[in-house]
Sequence to fold (228 residues):
Amino acid sequence: NAGVTQTPKFRVLKTGQSMTLLCAQDMNHEYMYWYRQDPGMGLRLIHYSVGEGTTAKGEVPDGYNVSRLKKQNFLLGLESAAPSQTSVYFCASSRGQGRGWDTQYFGPGTRLTVL
Amino acid sequence: QKEVEQDPGPLSVPEGAIVSLNCTYSNSAFQYFMWYRQYSRKGPELLMYTYSSGNKEDGRFTAQVDKSSKYISLFIRDSQPSDSATYLCAMDELTGGGNKLTFGTGTQLKVEL
Fold:
């Protein structure tokens, strides 16, 4: 099993360009998450999904859109990139146990620079 | 003020030392407390989790939670160079509909030979 994979690993964008980050998991997990990690800020939740076809906003959703058309994939889109979106983006997934707690498994990250 | 505060370090210790890593928090609704380890340029991986107050031990690692003081700790005994990483604390209210974690900023640890 590959676990959680992210594509691409690195990307440089110019201000105003758009791009999509792809997250894939092969663990048949229900829940998926997108985080960004910035120095001095820790990991912050952007959007998440509790099942195929569902998405919800996290702590810092502005400037991002997401889609979960297939259970194994969670896409993060930047419609018009801004320098403030320069960050390392992590995807995570978890089995999903309703009100119970379960482990979040993280991908290796995507390093995005917006010039 | 952030919900979760964590000293960023860096913390440098000699091999074999006992390491103490700490987080404080302000949200009394947090119920689950986790420690993640993140190696440079890698994703975080879960090290330990604890429910409510108390201690939990796993090999060289011990997690402590004191809900009355809103304070959690991770102790590493007999530290090794392979423990050099950033340690992130994380907390969860368990409100349902997805486990939305609140992370500390991470403490960078270096264990030197």
